[in-house]
Amino acid sequence: MGSHFKGSKENKRDLVLVTGRAHPELAKAVAENLGIELLKTKIYDFANGEIYVHFQESVRGCDVFVLQTHVTPMNKAIMEQLIMVDALKRASAKSITVVCPFLGYSRQDKKSNGREPISARLIFDLFTAAGADRIMSIDLHSAQLQGFFDGPLDHLYAMPILTEYIKTRVDLDNVTIVSPDAGRIRVAEQWADRIKRDGANASPLAFIHKTRDITRPNVVKHGRVVGDVEGRDCVISDDLIDTAGTIAGAVSALWDAGAKSVIVAATHGVLSDPAKERLSECGATEVIVTDTLPIPEEKRFDNLTILSVAPLLAEAMKAVFEAGSVTSLINAKNL
Ligand code: R5P
To answer: Which of 133, 234, 258, 299 has the highest CB neighbour count under 10 A?
Structure first.
């Protein structure tokens, strides 16, 4: 097995996959799904923290996908990916697609106060300056982030992976989809349209009325449950779980409102402290995340399930490379 995925007779270019040090397991799984090996790459830190990257095989004329998820310490993961992009540009890659399964800073997509940055826009500008032709990511914090990059951006959704699994875990005649805040109701509607019996109407919705203390990071004030959840199997869906304050508060509000069971599903398991304690103690029936971020042993707990996005990423890369349809993979309208 080589490191180049060969194009067809008409498409004579090669697809190459490179990765940094953030999440080697995911990169290997994507490469396996593509039937190739990762391009041999040397990466190390100098004593003062500067990062060095050297690709050990030619990438001249290749379509290169640079996979790096923005794991903590995030600034280092992002800088490493920028340096990889720069090296590829200078090595005459034909096209460079930046693949960030979890895109860092994407929550900072607008000013809520005077004299604040819009950091998400800055990240896209940095990738543009480094030489990215295209960006691919999964479940951006908000869909309008697509407009922050002046080129093609493939916004993939983990929803089908999560909902197919959840359908096997709940009573489809008694399920309510719960948005953890008012802002994600549109997304919850999509979930409600999927987690149901074939041919049935969408499942009912509820949401948690949540407010934030804008003067303190990660501090959430919880309100009440809006919608009927008594005696129901509830499924809370969110884009990410960071410290789990949002989710733990939502789970306890649902128990207080008489829920029968509470499943938590989120695409990105950031799981910063004290997420593990909060999630394992909040009484959730099951917590489901994907592997867009690595989840080390010490962050895992008994009722945590991790589903892989590797097949989704590999399919999307193939579709981009073969100029196929990425839209058909997205399979989630109007998010
Ligand atoms: C908020 O808008 C996001 O969708 C998440 O709900 C939030 O960022 C999660 O953060 P935490 O887990 O720290 O409450």
So the answer is: 234
Q: What would the two tokens of residue 28 be?
A: 């290997």
**What would the pLDDT profile of 239-273 be if each residue is shown by its tens digit?**
999 999 999 999 999 999 999 999 999 999 999 99
Any atom of ligand 1 within 6 Å of the Cβ of 244 = yes
Please answer whether residues 289 and 263 qualify as being in contact, where contact means their C-beta atoms are separated by less than 8 angstroms. no
Separation of CA 317 and ligand 1 centre (Å): 29
Q: Which of 89, 210, 276, 333 is catalytic?
A: 210
Q: Residue 335 has what pLDDT? A: 43
- Which atom number of ligand 1 is nearest to the Cα of residue 275? 12
pTM over 0.90: yes
The answer to whether residue 299 is catalytic is no
Q: Does the beta carbon of 241 sit less than 6 angstroms from any atom of ligand 1?
A: yes
Residue corresponding to tokens 């990438």: 59
Q: Which residues contact 50 (CB under 8 A, 6 or more apart)?
A: none
Q: Residue 183 — very low, low, confident or very high, per pLDDT cuts 50/70/90?
A: confident
